Amino acid sequence: MGTWVVGLSGRLGLGEVYVFAVFIIAAVVFLVTMVYVLNLVKGFLANSLVKASAASEPVNVMPQSPPALVGSNILVNITITGNPQPYSLGELPNNALCVIRLINGTEFYAKGLVTYNPVAGYLGALLTCPLGYALTQSSGQAVDLSIYLPRSDGGVVSVTLYMGHVIAYAIPINSTYNEVIAVDNSTGWVFVNGTRVPPHGSTSFIKEIPSSGVYTLSVNGIINEIVPAQRIIVQTASVPVPPQCINFRVYYDNGSLIGFNSAGASSNAPNAGSNPSNNIAIYGTATITNNVLGATAPIHYSSEMIITAGPPEYAMWIYYASGYSINASTYNSFAATIYPTLYTPNETMYFVFVEVSNSSGNYVYASILSINYPASPASNYEAPGSYSTSSYINTINRKKTIAIGAWFQTLLAYLVLGNAGDYGNVIIVHESSILENTWQVVEGMIPSNVGSSADIVEVGFGTFFVYSNQAPPGQTALPGPPNGPWYPGSMYIDYLCVG
Amino acid sequence: MVVLRLGLSEIMGAVLILVISVVFGVALLTLFINYMHYSLQALYNGPLSPHCQFSVIGYAINKTTSGYVVALGLYNYGNAPCIIEGALVVNATTGNVITVVTYSNPIKFNGFTIIKLNVGSIKPPFIVRLYSRDGYVGGGLVG
């Protein structure tokens, strides 16, 4: 029995070729179809994405020149910068909406024509708006010209020119020329003397001072408006330096509080200090601040009185520096520059003082910024007793000065001289009116009768609080506030000089 | 000696497989083409179909003796004409419809156009919604 060898052929038969051919054709058809479909979907998605991103991209529209009136048309030349994609999606619409609004509220509108001019980096557009006739309506007092440009993706860009709110200021820079600042106080663009000014923007230029002193600036080209430039005087914040500080002994102007101490007292309890249990509390702080209000490192002084008893009450807080020995005859005046702020009108008084020592005792001379304190009856003031008259008391409102002066002197005597009973040695030598939120010099003269050997031993400043429900004459007294309200007395002080 | 010969059954088998393959392939291709046809049809009937799309690009408003007249600048950026048949004037704060305006002669437009809307005594601000015949709604705030 032999072995059978079967020879198998390696060739493909006709059937297999057909099958493969069908499969290949099917695969090709499938692939081509898929590519076609994917391209469709890709194109659709790309288009949608571009539109979506374009809608969120900022576009800047700027007029390039003042609008020009040519025949019955208004021509506007603008540029569009930003995302250029919205403008490459398809044909740009060649129409726009033009609206001119007059001062009486009437709005004229028309279909405008747009010619686009793509340039590298931006898109230029020239608009022709057939609205020239609107400028002759209602005296032609147009407020603005708005242009709305449709985009091929359905979006819109707009630009508004001229809303007529130009303010101009002229600031003298020398005897010949002024710097003119023109401010566009509107949400639209304006052209001032041909210079483009963005919404809420400004422009400035140097201009010779005309003999009339009046400038005229043209705004835009066709919607003319004469804007007078107001000449203004530049005021810069400056701190007046007391003359005492020129030839002087200066105790403070260098941003330092070294050597200063503080103390407080009230009519309810001379040693009230900041202890609320004494029915009336008074306290204060003083710190060096940064440069403010034109002053270099002034002291910010803040004091306050807190009421825990019924009116009337008085309180005082002082900052003082002692231990000096300055001849009061040679240097017989004192001054400080202060800036009163945050205080209770007619209730807070600021003052500067010096303590002078001579052979007969110690005296305090004070200069006060007076307050419009109601007149007596004095019985309401709990006057401390007789007042030591002085020829240096301001006699303009003697009654007022005496009424306040009693407690003012009592408290200052207590704080400076150490004895409230020495109120007769506290003399108000100068009184001036308080000016809120401005620098003012508070100064006083030491009388010559202190003698040639008298010395200034202490200088200081402070606040005196008057808490009263006393009404002005002829008016009903106001009810007293409940316990607890506080009375502020804050100021800046930049000099304290003896000269 | 035995001679190996392919019999008729093998030929018939190959032909049968071929026929089955062709039929199956044609059936699959038909199914796929039908599926793609309907998918593309839906795409063309939907997002890719010619339809109206418009936006309100700006407005002007004037007070006349008969009330407020709004001029709306419209731009049709779709690929079919827009036919505006009516509008709603909606309270800008509450969203409530204040009045309905219908156009007896629908406004048909391509590209840019300006239409007028008389809203009577309704003071701006308010929202205008314009309805096109193919269902597209566009509009914006006036005032």
Features:
A: 499 residues, mainly beta, Immunoglobulin-like, Jelly Rolls, eight-stranded antiparallel beta sheet, six-stranded antiparallel beta sheet, 2 helices, elongated, B: 143 residues, alpha+beta, 2 domains, four-stranded antiparallel beta sheet, three-stranded antiparallel beta sheet, 7 strands, 47% strand, rod-shaped
Summarize the structure in short:
The complex is a heterodimer of chains A (499) and B (143). Helix content of chain A is 13%, strand content 43%.
Describe this structure in words.
The complex is a heterodimer of chains A (499) and B (143). In chain A, the strands form six sheets. In chain A, strands 1, 2, 3, 4, 5, 6, 7 and 8 form an eight-stranded antiparallel beta sheet that branches. In chain A, strands 17, 19, 20, 22, 26 and 28 form a six-stranded antiparallel beta sheet that branches. Chain A has a six-stranded mixed beta sheet with strand order 18-21-27-23-24-25, with helices on one face. Chain A is built from two helices and 28 strands. Chain A is elongated, with a radius of gyration of 42 Å. Chain A has 499 residues and is mostly beta strands. Chain A has three domains: 61-161, Sandwich (Immunoglobulin-like); 166-231, Immunoglobulin-like (Sandwich); 243-498, Jelly Rolls, CATH 2.60.120. With 143 residues, chain B is of the alpha+beta class. Chain B has two domains: 1-49; 54-142, Immunoglobulins (Immunoglobulin-like). Chain B has one helix spanning 8-45; strands at residues 54-64, 67-76, 82-91, 97-109, 111-120, 126-132, 137-142. In chain B, the strands form two sheets. Chain B has a four-stranded antiparallel beta sheet, with no helix packed on it. In chain B, strands 1-2-5 form a three-stranded antiparallel beta sheet, with no helix packed on it. Chain B is rod-shaped and about 110 Å long. The relative contact order of chain B is 0.17. The mean pLDDT of chain B is 86. The chains are: A mainly beta (499), B alpha+beta (143). Chain A binds chain B through residues 4, 6-7, 13-16, 18-19, 22-23, 26, 29-30, 33, 37, 40-41, 44, 93, 95-97, 99, 101, 105-109, 111, 146, 148-156, 158, and chain B through 2, 4, 14-15, 17-18, 21-22, 25, 28-29, 32-33, 36, 39-40, 43, 47-48, 53-55, 57-63, 71, 73, 75, 77, 111-114.
